[in-house]
UniProtKB/TrEMBL annotation:
It comes from Nothocercus nigrocapillus. InterPro entries: Ankyrin_rpt-contain_sf, Rho_GEF. This is AKP13 protein. It comes from the Eukaryota. One of its GO terms (molecular function) is MAP-kinase scaffold activity. GO terms for biological process: adrenergic receptor signaling pathway; positive regulation of canonical NF-kappaB signal transduction; regulation of Rho protein signal transduction. GO terms for cellular component: actin cytoskeleton; membrane.
Amino acid sequence: GDCVITVQLTEEDQVEDDVVFYLIFTGSTVQHCTSTRKINPGSLETIAPGHDCCETVKVALCASKEGHPVLVVAEESFQFIQDEAYDAAQFLATCAGNQQALNFTRFLDRSRPPAADVEFLDEKVALAFRHLKLPPGWNVLGADQSLNENSPRETLMHFAARLGLLRLTWFLLQQPGGRGALSIHNTEGATPVSLALERGYLKLHQLLTE
């Protein structure tokens, strides 16, 4: 999702200005409808929607004009692929509560990736997370809810706060266990809130304290 798609119209499809074009993406379980922007008489532009799985979907270009029936102008196939961001989101979702895996993710902190790479990682992983099929009952703190909230441990929220992943943090806050994770200390005594402040991520710290 979120990539730019350009549609080239044939001469016979370059109709009056009051015709509205939109695209319908039909997958195995989900259907999306996106508006388009006319770049010039022969070209349209839209943003690909995020999808729930990696598959080839059918895309229909439709034309709409007031007082007329909707017309399907053309059909084509479009493939949603599995990329590194999707793999990373799946890994993080699977390792929620897994201390060995969460401690492994801390090598990213030691490597200190450039800010531009972190911004890209945040944007793409958060997008992938929003469209993952999370299992029923999935929780930011993992499957074992018998753990006392006072037990020192690493959480997905620590991971996001340590790297300054604002979008991913926002997503996690809205999931079960997200708010509870804010008060959990890791083995070094740090909470996600204190990590954000320590690293100078002021917007992130403001989000977590509000």
